[in-house]
Design goal:
single chain, 197 residues, Elongation Factor Tu (Ef-tu), domain 3, 7-stranded antiparallel β-sheet, mainly beta
């Protein structure tokens, strides 16, 4: 479980093919990282597979590569990183599982007078996206500022701009999108109830 409050961005320093997976390597930016620990990379919950020589290695299986933007990364690209929430931690963003629902293409960037990103709403996720609701894109907890059947918009404050890579992504970048887990749970429950009756 995460909060969508990105700790920092880190460069990708290694990408290697394995049997049925890719090994993604970033610098170990913490002093107490453990093997097997969960760390969100661009909002995707990954397991630390290797700690060696100041580096962290993560193995990404084909399903994750097909559902996220992690397979598009190159050495030198920067990714958002967040360690898992600990019991007793302050919860600043919203509950984020690190289970990416799909990708949402960057359609437009408006940098002034306020910064907004317009992203394509995946049709199968549209029912979970609500005005002023929570959304997580590339691991960043945000509030939906505007919504239509075809797109959603998020507004970025200066702190988010300076601490993340969101405004640096190129047009058509497929953001990893996770809809709010509470909205998904409630809507899924109501749909099952309606089907049963």
């Amino acid at each position: 479980m995460f909060t969508g409050i990105v700790e920092q961005s880190a460069p990708v320093i290694g990408i290697a093919d394995g049997p049925g997976f890719k090994r993604l390597t970033i610098p170990n930016i913490w002093s107490d990282t453990r093997g097997g620990e969960s760390i969100a990379i661009n909002g995707t919950c990954l397991t630390v597979a290797e700690i060696h020589d100041g580096k962290l290695g993560f193995d990404i299986v084909q399903e994750t590569l097909s559902l996220t933007n992690l397979g598009l990364l190159h050495i030198g690209d920067r990714v958002h990183v967040e360690r898992a929430l600990r019991v007793g931690d302050r919860i600043d963003g919203h509950f984020v599982q690190g289970h990416v629902d799909g990708t949402a293409k960057l359609l437009d960037k408006q940098l002034a007078p306020d910064c907004r990103l317009r992203i394509q709403s995946p049709p199968h996720l549209a029912k979970y996206l609500i005005p002023k609701g929570s959304i997580c894109i590339d691991g960043v907890s945000l509030t939906i500022a505007a919504i239509s059947p075809a797109y959603s918009e998020v507004a970025l404050i200066p702190t988010t701009i300076s601490r993340t890579e969101l405004v640096n992504r190129p047009m058509n970048w497929p953001f990893n999108l996770e809809a709010d887990v509470l909205a998904k749970t409630i809507i899924s429950h109501l749909e099952r109830q309606q089907s049963a009756s």
